[in-house]
Amino acid sequence: MPNVYLIGAGPGDPGLLTLKAKRVLETCDVLVYDYLANKAFLDYCRPGAEIIYVGKKGGDHTLPQGDINKLLVAKAREGKMVARLKGGDPYVFGRGAEEAEELLADGLTFEVIPGVTSAVAAPAYAGIPITHRKFASSVSFITGHEDPTKDESAHNWPALAQAASTLVFFMGVKNLADISRRLIEGGRDPKTPAALVRWGTTCRHRSMVSTLEDIPAEAKRQGFKAPSLLVVGEVVSLHDTLNWYEKRPLLGKGVVVTRSREQASDLVRLLTDLGACAWEFPTIEVAPLADPAPVREALGRLNCFDWLVFTSVNGVKCFFAEMDAMALDARALGGLKVAAIGPATAQALAERGIRADFVPEKYVAESVVEGLLALQIGGKRVLIPRAAQAREVLPEELARAGAQVEVLPVYETKLAQQDPDEVLAAIEEGEIHFLTFTSSSTVDNFFQVVPAARVAALRDKLTIACIGPVTAATLKKHGFEPDVQPENYTIPALAQSLVRAAAAV
Fold it and tell me: Which residues are catalytic?
């Protein structure tokens, strides 16, 4: 096995990481990563892996390149499997070759895992193909990070200017005026289309189109800064026609997700697909019970019940985890009818081979009660696997209707301790636009961590969304009215309600 893997993380969209890179991240002992590598990749690392941030942000290196080389050597000499994660591709202006040479000089081995370079991906997301039969049959990748005051440039500016190639400059914003001047002096038409793409492929993606002569002034007017790519060539004329990514309805919108980390993935994925920047701020931790004995005792007498009623995906997962521990499977539920509070819970059951006999039209406990009463549940024996602390509406109303109800705690929820300063600062700076709540417990726990007064002070900058009326009622107890609430109390409906709210602004 190689001592060190030099991995290209791609341009920022987590979906552009290669499968091979993901596999190495999942098994490495040490991860050394750059500023431009998406932090979402850190979640792939196994528990206990050593994670080291080395910076490499323009003009602000946490570790100089020489020290990074020494760090890789030192960690590899400890006998550890080292993953070196770099933005884009390691060999495209990434100094990966220098790191490889240093490893070889110390008798160590390495492997390169190429990444999608931003020179291809960022223009593509902005609707700019870097080659096109009508406009350009070649492309040049150029560093724009040259000192404009030095006597000689490393570039042959007349050759670049007079070629029919598309020109893609990395790190060129700082020297944009100099690049423009040199190309025009070299013979490039001042009216040549030119574009800047900032934070390409990420939720912060922006692009702008101008001409070679005007783009320095236009970039300054629009506030374009690093990290941005400069694209020069006739292919830029296709920007408005082929620009697909910037049509995503939540692009650039920051959304705080307060669900537990275990449950957040569905909402985060939906938001990300819509272009949003999802800020995970879990307020709940789902934990197994310290003593599983009561659950296992109940599983041993499932034949005593007529109905199983699941009120959450977590309830399903924890209930079946204990079944697995007892070597039981779906056959143990033979003869029971099963209800699910909503489609997500029903899907969790379906994944375990159980088709729910009843799912209410509205996904709250009150609708479950109404539907089960219509199914003549009075007099039936009902088991409700749920959280240790939960609303009592469902068991109380079923018992009032004559059902014999047993509540079975199968997990507990705890307050997730979070530092709110980063999120609050992002709200103040206009990076976060939506605050979402998907249950009453997310509301209560959020306001245990974040003082209501601080949220009130930022209220005009925030749109608050609740998944349904029960969650909204809890929010009101803390002094806030929801701005957004979907008609259907589901995660997809919540995401779509944010789309409508964003369009209405």
Answer: 34, 56, 171
